Amino acid sequence: MIGNKAPGEADNQQGSRQLDLLSDWLTPQRLHAELLAANEKSLEAYLQGALRDGTWNRRHRTHRIGQSDQRWLNLLSRGLERLGHRSWIYREGKSRNLWILETTAQFLSIGFDATQLVTSHEGMDYARGYFDAEGGMPRRSEARLYLQLTQKDRHNLEAVHRILENRGIQCGRIHNPSHRVDPNYWRFYVKATSHKSFMALVGSWHPSQRQQIEDRMKI
Q: What is the DSSP-derived secondary structure letter of residue 112?
């Protein structure tokens, strides 16, 4: 449920009302249609991928995902609700532009091993959730296109790399951009020859990234 009080957190009734009022028109209806059309295994895989941007709250035994774009959290909440799991969204701090989705969904796991999805259909759903959580592309449609995925868990990033390569999406090598800045930060780029395939086969359910992809596909 959106707007319910999170364990150990104060109510933010104004933020909750805003979410209720804005969710229907801020999130494109086609994204909700795709979410509703997805089978349960695909939806679970997507949410596992999205959790790569999340944390585990040991005290409350909940998963937390933070975002400045509350529209994506709305979509995740609806996906969890469809699977029969409770979630709530609240604003963290009075002046911060940061929203938190928290859920007790037991199927989610920070330690989920994505290698089991390398040859399965759900692998692409996982890659989509992963891209929405840890991926990036230029915001301006006129900028030179790149598609990157990043993560501190190299093993998990390697699994996503294998998932994409298994479906014919060519990717560059996994590398550390700057060992001095962060020796545990890893990324890879989708090769330019596979940009269109990635946008068509993986795509995005994140409202802002989805719009960027659709703008690119029109060019």
A: -
Q: Are 35 and 118 in contact (CB under 8 A)?
A: no
Any idea which fold 114-218 has? Endonuclease I-creI (3.10.28)
Same fold, 13-103 and 114-218: yes
* pLDDT given at position 92: 87
Q: Provide mean pLDDT across the span 135-160.
A: 93
Q: For the ranges 16-20, 50-54, 164-168, which has the lowest average pLDDT? A: 16-20
| Residue 83 near residue 44 (C-beta atoms within 8 A) | yes
pTM, entire model? 0.84
40: its two tokens: 């349960």
Is-contact 78 37, C-beta < 8 A? no
Domain range summary for the chain, segments of one domain joined by + = 13-103, 114-218
**Rounded to an integer, what distance in angstroms lies between the CA atom of residue 80 and that of residue 96?**
25
Q: Under a CB-based contact definition with an 8 Å cutoff, are residues 157 and 149 in contact?
A: yes
Alpha carbons 121 and 130: distance in angstroms, whole number: 15
Instruction: Classify domain 13-103 at the CATH superfamily level.
Output: Homing endonucleases (3.10.28.10)
Which of 153, 69, 31, 54 is CA-nearest to residue 108? 54
